[in-house]
């Protein structure tokens, strides 16, 4: 391995520090839906209001999945998804840096 210059962090150290700052992170999306309970005579369903529920949707093992989220976690989940997008952008930068490092070595 090439010795790192004094005062300059190894790229993996810089990455680990930036990635750790992006916790909690998540990939997927969050949306409010209106569920129907199916109970005859339910006023909320009859009015069209239904039963609001917060859903986290994501892909896992190639399949679309969803989990219901407690409403008090909405802010934390939105922040996690925002952090996840920043982490993806950081990984793109890692790919660019890896290609450039390979070019410089030749
Ligand atoms: Zn209902």
Word description of this protein:
The protein has 106 residues and is α+β, with helices and mostly antiparallel strands. The chain has one domain. Helices cover 43% and strands 23% of the residues. It has a three-stranded antiparallel sheet with strand order 1-2-3, covered by helices on one side. A hairpin with a 2-residue loop joins strand 2 and strand 3 (63-69). The radius of gyration is 22 Å and the shape is elongated. The model has no long low-confidence stretch (mean pLDDT 92). Zinc ion is lined by residues 36-37, 39, 42, 44-45, 51.
Short description:
With 106 residues, the chain is of the alpha+beta class. It has three helices and three strands.
Order of strands in the sheet with most strands? 1-2-3
Distance between the termini: 15 Å
Bound molecules: zinc ion
Main sheet record = 3 strands, antiparallel
Helix content: 40-55%
Low-pLDDT parts are none
Q: Residue-averaged pLDDT, rounded? A: 92
Helical segment count? 3
Taken in chain order, the helices and strands follow as HEHEEH
> What overall geometry do the principal axes of the alpha carbons give?
elongated
Specify the structural class: alpha+beta
How many beta-strand segments? 3
Number of self-contained structural domains: 1
Strand content: 15-25%
Radius of gyration: 22 Å
């Amino acid at each position: 391995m090439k010795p790192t210059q004094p005062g300059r962090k190894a790229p993996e150290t810089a990455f680990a520090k930036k990635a750790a700052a992006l916790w909690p992170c998540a990939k997927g999306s969050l949306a409010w839906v209106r569920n129907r309970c199916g109970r005859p005579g339910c006023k909320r369903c009859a009015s069209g209001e239904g039963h609001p529920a917060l859903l986290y949707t994501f892909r896992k093992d190639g399949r679309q999945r969803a989990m219901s989220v407690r409403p008090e976690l909405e802010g934390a989940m939105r922040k996690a998804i925002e952090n996840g997008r920043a982490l993806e952008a950081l990984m793109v930068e890692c790919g660019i840096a890896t290609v450039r490092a390979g070019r410089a070595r030749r």
